[in-house]
Specification:
Elements lengths: L3 E4 L18 H12 L7 E3 L6 H4 L5 H9 L5 E3 L5 E3 L2 H20 L5 E4 L21 H12 L5 E5 L6 H6 L6 E8 L21 E6 L5 H19 L3 E6 L16 H18 L4 E5 L5 H16 L1
Parallel strand pairs: 1-2, 1-5, 5-10, 6-7, 6-9, 7-8, 9-10
Antiparallel strand pairs: 3-4
Helix pairs in contact: 1-9, 4-5, 7-8, 8-9
The protein binds zinc ion.
């Protein structure tokens, strides 16, 4: 059985607002409750995060933007944009989220765990170098990839983003790089508006960016075909040393935000497909980072399924 790390911290729940918002603390509560109630928690290696350092954030984000996010601590509540709220604790939660994914990375590279799932919030894949958007402040997975390249002498990192929205921030972070292969499966056209298949990267990064857009109402077949027929062959060519997953579950058929029709079975199959790639090229090394997913009853189940498959 593989040793799987689980990143969670109660302070992730403190990022909240005073009105209804789909990206709320109940999401992580649902995940943690499902993992605890099922007994799965006993089999996981618990990783309690410490805050990231400012220089970790600046691997991807500008100093000016970092200071803007830091300054949100001085305000009880506010809105960065129409979608993206903050409160006094948002900065603390966001620093812990990055700290958590980096700790998972360190433990994995030290051989203490084989894989990890990071149940963090705020989510990250929409966050750009110099601004927040789409509920995201710091791009957790992009920072992890950059940190692994710089600190662990890795040369080829693959990121697959199966959240129902395009991972614009992650795409932009590595658009001109050939050391990170980024693939996003997402509803298109839809928020955030990016994610065209013709966006394949630029300069040295050309052909290292793979967008697999899906039309409204796309189902399991479209989703899994993209993974098997497009992403897997790209991985056979790229031969990543580690696989990072932007694990978002808002493409689920009963999710309130994204009109896709992906079922529980397909998400299980997506994890199995990712695992086969990681087993073949990455010595099984996978770090998954939570992005979206707004159906509270499914979210816990989806994460349990994902963890069970990683553990096999
Ligand atoms: Zn999403």
């Amino acid at each position: 059985m593989k040793k799987v790390g689980y990143v969670y911290h109660k302070d992730f729940l403190k990022h909240t607002t005073d009105r209804y918002h789909p990206e709320n603390p109940q999401r992580l509560k649902a995940i943690d409750k499902a993992i605890t109630d099922s007994g799965l928690i006993e089999k996981l290696t618990i990783i309690e995060p410490k805050p990231a350092q400012p220089e970790d954030i600046q691997l991807i984000h500008t100093e000016k933007y970092f200071q803007i996010v830091k300054s949100t601590q001085d305000h009880p509540l506010g809105d960065y944009d129409a979608d993206t709220y903050y409160c006094r604790h948002t900065y603390t939660a966001a620093m812990l989220a990055v700290g958590g994914v980096l700790q998972a990375g360190q433990m994995l590279m030290d051989g203490k765990i084989d894989c990890a799932f990071c149940a963090v919030r705020p989510p990250g894949h929409h966050a750009e170098a110099d601004h927040a958007m789409g509920f995201c402040f710091f791009n957790n997975i992009a920072i992890l990839a950059k940190w692994l390249l710089q600190n662990h002498n890795l040369k080829r990192i693959a990121i697959i983003d199966w959240d129902g929205h395009h991972g614009n921030g992650t795409q932009h972070a590595f658009y001109a790089s050939d050391d990170v292969h980024f693939c996003s499966l997402h509803l298109y056209p839809f928020f955030p508006g990016t994610g065209k298949p013709s966006d394949i990267g630029t300069g040295e990064g050309e052909s290292y960016n793979l967008n697999l857009p899906m039309a409204y109402g796309s189902d399991d077949e479209v989703f899994l075909r993209g993974m098997r027929h497009n992403w897997v062959p790209a991985m056979v060519k790229f031969k990543p040393e580690i696989l990072l997953i932007s694990a978002g579950y808002d493409g689920y058929c009963d999710d309130p935000l994204v009109p896709l029709e992906i079922t529980r079975d397909a998400y299980q199959e997506a994890t199995r497909t990712a695992k086969r790639v990681a087993d073949k090229y990455c010595q099984g090394r996978i770090i998954s980072v939570l992005e979206g997913g707004y159906n509270m009853s499914f979210l816990g189940q989806a994460v349990i399924d994902h963890l069970n498959i990683l553990m096999e």
